[in-house]
Design brief:
This protein is of the alpha/beta class and about 450 residues long. Strand 3, helix 14 and strand 4 form a beta-alpha-beta unit. The longest helix is centred in the middle third of the chain and has 17 residues.
């Protein structure tokens, strides 16, 4: 994505005529490239790509992105040529502004309907934007002309990510084994997604509100708790901004205990990961699960590896090495992550997650509070020894937050029934990172 630069524009450049683009242009006058991009995201899609390219060319030049500047300048000069539309769309995808690529790639495909390159790049842009129903639609409209790999595979994938199991299963049945071994891993991942769906639908609805079900289908992760706020407003169990608590940490560990029992998993230890938060939670988990706490070792079997947030683990000393070791887990090794981002691609996919967040503050970090006079102020962090904070978690109150009353009841036996139904497909396959926030949102296929 573009970064902020404060260069002034060339005086010879003319302003765009479209009112929707003037706001973006004026942001560039102020040196505010991110502001211009926000304006383009809000207003640019209905406009002719050639007009938008005038503004994008200037933004790309000021950001130092020569490839996108060249492609946008060429499109502004020749807005009705398929090659220029495709090249511009491709450059937009590569530079992280896929929402600008979509109108151009749609236009390129209209001009060159048999172009497999334009079709796949448009699907790629849709996927990066989490617009999987549209990706499935554009592929389905050309079903008779699709190559098996990757085109029909991508149709199955996007149907799954859009929550359309019927379409995914029908197209998967038409998909032959790939001739090129490069696709074998993708075939295996997709087959396991469909196997997980068949298991999950025995215990849950798998409709578009079923966050736990789809979290498991897409990534093999069991989601322990649902947010009690904003369920009917589109969050369906995800948290947006959350200040975490010792109570919620304890509830997550108790739900982990329920998950392990229902999955007939019998660990012999709790493994501690790098990072203060993960160590605190790991020590608390050892008490809750009545298991010894040991330092993480990649080859240790029959152990629960505890992370507060895997992004924190990745930033810790020896974190990248540890994350790499968690991709291929030893037999009986279960990775539990308390707080997992649903808006970013995870560094590694956990087997169990307590909650999904957009922004989180751990209980031992400085949290915002209201002071006298109504002002907000961030408090001091809790710098006590990890053992002391862990003991406070173990002594906390795990009673769930009642929230706004919109989230369906989620008692322990419902979680246990779900895990019992899917345990034959749980803890299977690789753990490569996949953003799995529910149907219609995910990362681009790689």
């Amino acid at each position: 994505m573009f970064s902020r630069r404060n260069r002034r524009p060339k005086s010879a450049e003319s302003r765009p005529n479209s009112p929707q683009l003037i706001e973006a242009w004026e942001s560039l006058d102020q040196g505010d490239i991110p502001g211009a991009l926000r304006s383009l995201r809000a207003h640019a899609e209905p406009l002719p790509p050639g007009e938008v390219a005038v503004v994008v060319a200037r933004a790309a030049r000021e950001a130092g992105f020569d490839d996108l500047h060249t492609a946008a300048t060429a499109l502004a000069a020749r807005p009705d040529r398929a090659q220029e539309l495709y090249s511009y769309g491709y450059a937009c995808v590569e530079r992280g502004v896929s929402y600008l690529a979509i109108p151009a790639l749609r236009a390129a495909l209209d001009l060159a309907p048999d172009s497999g390159a334009a079709l796949r790049e448009l699907v790629s842009a849709y996927e990066r934007e989490g617009r999987h129903p549209e990706a499935a639609d554009v592929l389905g409209a050309r079903e008779s002309a699709l190559n098996a790999w990757p085109d029909r595979y991508l149709l199955v994938y996007n149907a799954l990510m859009a929550g359309d199991l019927e379409l995914a299963r029908r197209q998967h049945a038409l998909l032959p084994d790939p001739e090129d071994e490069i696709w074998l891993g993708a075939q295996d991942r997709q087959r396991r997604m469909l196997e997980r769906a068949a298991a999950a639908e025995q215990a849950t609805s798998l409709d578009l509100h079923d966050l736990r079900g789809w979290q498991f289908v897409m990534g093999g992760t069991v989601l322990g708790t649902l947010s009690p706020y904003g369920f009917d407003a589109g969050m369906t169990g995800r948290f947006a901004w959350i200040q975490d608590s010792h109570d919620r940490c304890l509830r997550g560990l108790l739900r982990l205990r329920t998950t392990l029992a229902a999955g007939e998993v019998r660990p012999r230890s709790v493994s501690l990961l790098p990072g203060r938060g993960s160590r605190i939670l790991g020590l608390a988990a050892a008490e809750v699960l009545d298991l010894p706490a040991v330092e993480f070792a990649a080859d240790r079997q029959d152990t629960v590896v505890i992370a507060y947030d895997l992004d924190e683990v990745a930033r810790a000393d020896q974190g990248p090495e540890t994350i790499g070791q968690l991709l291929e887990r030893a037999p009986g090794q279960v990775l539990h992550e308390h707080a997992s981002s649903w808006t970013d691609r995870p560094v590694v996919t956990a087997d169990s997650v307590t909650l999904l967040y957009q922004s989180v503050t751990a209980p031992w970090e400085g949290q915002l509070g209201q002071k006298e006079g109504g002002t907000l102020e961030r408090g001091a962090s809790d710098d006590r020894p990890a053992e002391d904070v862990a003991a406070e978690i173990v002594a906390a109150d795990p009673t769930p937050d009642e929230g706004d009353g919109g989230t369906p009841a989620d008692p322990d036996d419902r979680l246990a029934d779900f895990v019992a139904a899917v345990r034959g497909t749980w803890l299977q396959g690789d753990r490569t990172g996949l953003r799995t926030s529910g149907p219609v949102r995910s990362s681009r296929f790689v």
